[in-house]
Write the structure tokens for this entry.
Amino acid sequence: AQKITQTQPGMFVQEKEAVTLDCTYDTSDPSYGLFWYKQPSSGEMIFLIYQGSYDQQNATEGRYSLNFQKARKSANLVISASQLGDSAMYFCAMRGLNTGFQKLVFGTGTRLLVSP
Amino acid sequence: DTEVTQTPKHLVMGMTNKKSLKCEQHMGHRAMYWYKQKAKKPPELMFVYSYEKLSINESVPSRFSPECPNSSLLNLHLHALQPEDSALYLCASSQSQGGAIYEQYFGPGTRLTVT
């Protein structure tokens, strides 16, 4: 079975500062992928970044980077230079080989609030 | 273009009504998904279609009936719903699996209220 744990229900950060959102996972799959999604109050889930379990380098996409530590089973999202528009719910998720990579399992989410 | 569209945006229906949710994508994706999301909770997978065939049904009650008429369209037919079925229903699509892992792209969702 796969499990994603996000221990921070809410995070606060000031504009232009960096913030790290924590994510740990548990899986017996030999191959898996880790994702971060952003969900504004409008409801749409926006894909941010992806990390494959065999990728040697940490993924980066603009202001987003994923701090992947395989031995610790953690996949933290780092947002640099926060902007007011970053205020949203953030979900960590994974897909694994044992479900044919079809099933996306989500964590409980972290609500980020960026203040001026 | 990474757009998934869903209609309607909002839906209010009575417990005896029959309604349908629609989802469309033109990215050539061959995998499509329905999720249900209750307030302050993560999305929960309901159904997965792969190459227009149902591949995963997460033990969803039969009052929810999915349909994939073609590779671009995904419907969710609703009948005799309960108030606890009120939620945000999200559609998503991704490239087909083929042993590789692809991101899912989500639509804006349909907010369903059952009265």
Remarks:
- Residues 24 and 73 of chain B are 5 Å apart (CA to CA).
- The radius of gyration of chain B is 14 Å.
